[in-house]
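Q: I have 231 residues here and want to know how they pack in 3D. Can you give me a structure?
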Amino acid sequence: MTITLVTGATRGLGRETVRRLVSAGQTVYLGARDPERGAIAATELGATFVPLDVTDDASASAAAQFVDEREGRLDVLINNAGIRGGFVPLQTVTAADMLGVYDVNVFGLVRVTQAFVPLLNRSECPVIVNVGSGMGSIAITTDPGRLESTLVGLPYSSSKAAVSMLTTQYAKAYPRMRVNVVDPGYTDTDFNEHRGTQTVQEGAEAIVRMASIGIDGPSGTFTDRNGTVPW
């Protein structure tokens, strides 16, 4: 049975991803910072709650130990946890604004990935799915035909561009692992005050698909539910 961890999974895309993977027969660990919300969500979805604050090294290490003691390995890591950080006018963005977003979206991904690599190395088919964004694509955000080109913001968009680079570097560093980044698309969730144009089921499609690939699947790619996303 496939053992999977999803970070930031109490609501939105993370929660839907957990639901879909549990339904597919996977053993899913639901990572969340809030113990009450995490435990409730895990019970509702048929998953196992694991306390996990991606901004804390000790928490990431403890989560890896938690899964190790129960399973001895991890097959799929889904780095879903992320924050938007608000749309602060570019002229007033501070280093502290950037740091707060990067601590979750970028450094959090590194903390969790580094903590779980030893468990992933014990899997016959180790997979990492990093949840990125079209807002992190240089090609998309400079395409006049795309909505993303009309939006200006430093913290979130640059953090998601960093997620894409982290993905390609991890893919090269661990050739036995399948490491990919996905763009869920503009999805109707709390993350964007429900302004998104996709359903949460549509948004989770790319995540679930990449979480379900085999050892012969792609690595170092950027995709959405419709196919390849330009870097």
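Q: Anything worth noting?
A: The mean pLDDT is 93. Residues 155-173 form the longest helix (19 residues).
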